[in-house]
Structures are given as C-alpha cells and as structure tokens.
Design goal:
Layout lengths: L2 H25 L5 H7 L1 H9 L4 H15 L9 H18 L3 H18 L8 H11 L4 H11 L3 H6 L4 H19 L12 H9 L24
Helix pairs in contact: 2-3, 3-4, 4-7, 5-6, 6-8, 6-10, 8-10
Protein name: Secreted protein
Organism: Streptomyces indiaensis
Keywords: Membrane, Transmembrane, Transmembrane helix
Length: about 230
C-alpha cells in the first residue's frame, strides 16, 4: 500500500471520528428517552414551553442535569424535621380560615426545607426550582403552583377566577414535594409508618401522627370556604 493511500485513509478516519464526537457533544448526555424517563411530567412541560420543540426542551433539561445532577443533598436533623412538619400541619389547619396565608406559609416552608436539604437558597426561586426538578421531577410542579398562588395579588386572583378550591389544590400538590423533602433516609427507622392507621385517623377526623410519616390533610372540599 502506497504512502499516499495510507495518509488518505488516516485523514478519512480522523474526519469520521471528529464528526462522531461533534455529533455526540451536540446531542449531549441523557437525551431523548433517557430525559423523558428522568423528568416525566417536567419533560412534557418543557416541550410545551418550547412550543413543541423537543430538541430545545432536551437542551434545557440536559443543562439542568449538568448544573444540578451532582448536588449533594443533606439529611435533616430529627429536630429540624419535626419543626418543619409542625409548621406544615399548622398551615393546613389555618387554611380553612385563611387560605391565602396558608399557601404563603407553604411556599416559604418549601423554600426553607429545600435549602436545608442542600438545594439552592430559597431567595433564588428559579434556580431552586430547577435543581428540585432534577431530583424530584414528579412532585416539583406542586411547588411551582403554590408559589404562583402565594405571589398572586388578591385582586389578580379574583380577576383570574382563582378561588379557595384552586389554592387548596395547589396546597395539596405542594404537600407531595414537602413529604419527599422531609422524609428520613431509607436506613432511618423513623421512615417507617403505619399508613393504614394514618388513613383511618384522617377519615375519622383525628390528627394522625406526623413523626417520620405522611402528614395528615384534614381539610376536605366541604370545609373549604370560597374566598
């Protein structure tokens, strides 16, 4: 084989390798089905926000993973967990008489507990939400909804038709993320709870235990008063 042919083959191989590397970089990590599995409903929201452009949505979600995927989450101390749970229960009980104040407290609590777990500070709402979406994609929209309800002025809420039921739904959606953030680590015995006993307590109108388990939601639709 001549020297010229060998050089030509080396050049062609180099061009092919460079093209392949550039294609992989352009696609980024965890594209397509991988991102869809990881982000679930957040994937669909990102696509909708980009007017159906899946590639643009995937670039955005890939960037979130690159920024926050390696975030080291801190466990809560038992005393911290109990304090957060007590405040959430108090906000739930307050909802019946003052739904707007209750959703504002839920918004503050989510920001605080996320910060305590090692997510960006609550003063950086968008960045905190972005980080939470990487690690709690299936529940983070509850935070988005309660934050929006908490920061909507009373007159704007009336004009937009947002009543007590809308705020209640936002509060309930936010509770799922709150429970994810405050629950103990898997090896912590405090994470075990009697879900059957809690359901019975909730159905009977009695307060269910909050230590290490899901928090009760005593308010139902009949109790909600229109604002």
């Amino acid at each position: 084989m001549s020297t010229g042919l060998i050089i030509a083959l080396i050049v062609i191989a180099a061009v092919v390798i460079i093209a392949a590397v550039m294609t992989l970089r352009a696609r980024g990590p965890r594209q397509g089905p991988g991102l869809k599995r990881r982000f679930g409903p957040e994937y669909e929201r990102a696509v909708a926000r980009h007017d159906g452009d899946a590639k643009a949505a995937e670039r955005e979600l890939t960037e979130r993973v690159q920024r926050h995927g390696d975030l080291r989450r801190r466990p809560l101390e038992p005393a911290q967990r109990e304090q957060f749970e007590a405040r959430w229960t108090a906000a739930q009980e307050r909802f019946v008489d003052s739904p707007r104040d209750a959703v504002a407290e839920a918004d503050r609590l989510l920001a605080e507990v996320a910060g305590a777990r090692g997510f960006p500070d609550g003063g950086q709402y968008e960045e905190q939400l972005s980080a939470l979406s990487v690690h709690h994609a299936h529940h983070v929209d509850g935070y988005r909804r309660v934050h929006r309800a908490a920061h909507l002025r009373a007159e704007d809420a009336r004009d937009g038709g947002q009543g007590t039921e809308d705020m209640r739904e936002a509060f309930v959606a936010a509770r799922a993320l709150f429970e994810e953030l405050v629950k103990p680590a898997r090896h912590d015995d405090g994470g075990r709870h009697d879900s059957g006993r809690e359901r019975a307590a909730a159905n009977g109108g009695r307060k269910a235990p909050t230590r290490g388990g899901h928090l009760p939601w005593a308010m139902n639709r009949r109790q909600a008063k229109e604002s």
